[in-house]
Amino acid sequence: MNQKLSFFKAQAIFWLFLFAVFVGLIILFNGILLPFVIGAIVAYLLNPLVRILGQKGMKRWVASILILSAFSLFIVALIAISAPLLAREFGEFISSVPQYTQRISSIVQSRLSILEQRTGFDFMDKMHASIEEDIGKTLQMSQKVVGGVAAGLMMGGSAIVGFVTTALLVPIVAYFMMKDWPRITGFVHNLIPKAHKATINSLLDQIDRKISGFIRGQLSVCLILGVMYAIALSIAGLEYGSLIGLGTGLLSIIPYVGSTIGLLSSIGVAALQTDGDMTYVATIAAIFFTGQFIEGNFITPKLIGDSVGLHPLWIIFALMAGGSLVGLTGMLMAIPVAAIISVLIGFAIQTYKNSDFYKTPEKVSPVITDATNLPEIEIIIKTES
């Protein structure tokens, strides 16, 4: 048993050391990793389509170019259609912040006035100064935000260069990874020790199911929800409906979080837009409840099923940890790394439960609880004569 424990301990130390080296390299090369990470995600996302075309007789490099070109055209068309609308709505939202603040203040004051009439307590004099101060701070903050956005747009030359560089490198990285995917996976499989090949292949299959289920499934769900909410909210006449709808879809990468934030923000905008018309607010809420019903009963079971198995709290922690370590690159890598860690932790727990250390029952020493059942002890006292 001691030898087995020593073996597992050595394995744990080895994998922890390997993980520490991996994190260190990610932090060290963070500045240049973004196009490679995005390219790898795109290649992983599109590889099944390339494999299907390859099985039909098309050369892999031709299939890679064809699929990647179609995907690039789709992304460009999506940006060309949505970017102007989102930019206009975002600008309108920023400029409307002072107006919304004053409207909220007037609603609060009217409610306090009614409460004052009913209770006889002078709320207005007590809170007027505080409200005015808060309004002033909010106006100053909104002006700073607008100024900061303008300054960022004027001084964003380096960011534009970085964006263009990334946009050019991503298709190149994705193409070579898609073209050489069988060679890459074959190289990894050849490194697996033959004695542990079955176990490690099983772990790799579980990791692949989790990552593919999330990347190909959850991202598709996010896209469908974003478009669905944007269209529905815009048809309902909600201000910034497209912005809120697409934002809800983007945040839906974290289950339940996106829909909750989208629902609350939509209800807030609807209430301010109509001065508290509860019928309209209920209509907006019904859109989200209907969307959640469609997602839970049709979209998610069809596209994902039970293949992901990542708890929302685990996803939130992974995204926050990745973002705090290496920014956007870390957030993009967070979900695959979380899936890998989840599988390895599950394997470690199962190995522990199958071990003799876990299964061997504790040896319990007999405990005397009843003195009446003690054997009689004959005490012989010898006395010297």
TrEMBL record:
Location in the cell: Membrane
Record's bilayer topology term: Multi-pass membrane protein
Alphabetical GO biological process terms: transmembrane transport
GO-annotated cellular components: membrane
InterPro entries, alphabetized: AI-2E-like
Stretch forming the signal peptide: none
Keyword Cell wall biogenesis/degradation recorded: no
Main location: membrane
The entry's keywords: Membrane, Transmembrane, Transmembrane helix
Presence of keyword Glycoprotein: no
Ranges annotated as spanning the membrane: 12-30, 36-54, 61-87, 149-176, 219-238, 250-271, 278-294, 314-347
Family classification: Belongs to the autoinducer-2 exporter (AI-2E) (TC 2.A.86) family.
Protein name in UniProt: AI-2E family transporter
Native source organism of the sequence: Micavibrio aeruginosavorus
